[in-house]
Amino acid sequence: MPALVSGADVASEKGGREFFELRTYALKPDKQAILDRYLSGSLIPALNRLGIKQVGAFYETPAPASPVAHLLIPYQSLGQMAAINASLGDDPEYQKSAADYLAIPALDPVYDRIESSLLSAFETMPKLETPAKKASLYNLRIYESHNEAACKKKIEMFNKGEIAIFRRTGLAPVLFGEAILGTRIPNLTYLLAFDDEAARAEAWNKFRSDPEWIKLKSIPEYEDKRIVSKITNKLLTPADYSQI
After folding, report:
1. Nearby residues of 174 by Cβ (< 8 Å), 6 or more positions away
2. CA atoms within 13 A on the CB side of 127
3. Which of 31, 84, 149, 181 is the most exposed place for a label (fewest CB within 10 A)?
4. What pTM value is reported for the model?
5. CA proximity to 172, closest of 209, 199, 146, 205
6. Would you call the peptide bond into 109 cis, given omega within 30 degrees of 0 as the criterion?
7. What structural domains does the chain harbor?
């Protein structure tokens, strides 16, 4: 059962921290072009008209037989997110441009289902950070914990030093967020940007050998075995129309 939004998460909204929706589309074979037309020509332009900028669109790489797409939508508030569906229904330009996509028959679907997670930005990284130039490779990582306290402790570790070490060693963050709705909670999610695979490998190697990181991870309360149950690691390439 999805988690509920807590008082602390609502407080983060008042403090200026953003929320991020991460949608995952498990596509049927040969349906990527249909989704691309919908996202690039209908949904993302409609979101932009509603004041939502820097919408990211990515595909997992190497591409599986049935592509998996990820859509990243940043929100200034929970209220803005809640108003989206009604706003799209009242947008004639969206309804017209998305008509073919929305009329696709049940016997020929574009995707199995959409999975969606809602993330609350970290205290030390309250906003989405778009790379100065569009990266060619992104690294999406999800850290699951065995309970809420352990997840909060890993978030504390990032806030108290790990994110700063990331930045210094070339692991350029786009976002850090705690999942407040979605699957496999409790977890945290972050997204990193790189010029290419060589830059990614170099940055991670530099990070692993960094003296401050070695010192930080040696603190008993921050040991992975105590606070992290599973790490999911995905490499993503941006769609041509991605705004991140």
Report:
1. 56, 128, 129, 130, 131, 138, 190, 191, 192, 193, 244
2. 8
3. 149
4. 0.92
5. 199
6. no
7. 7-238 (3.30.70.100)
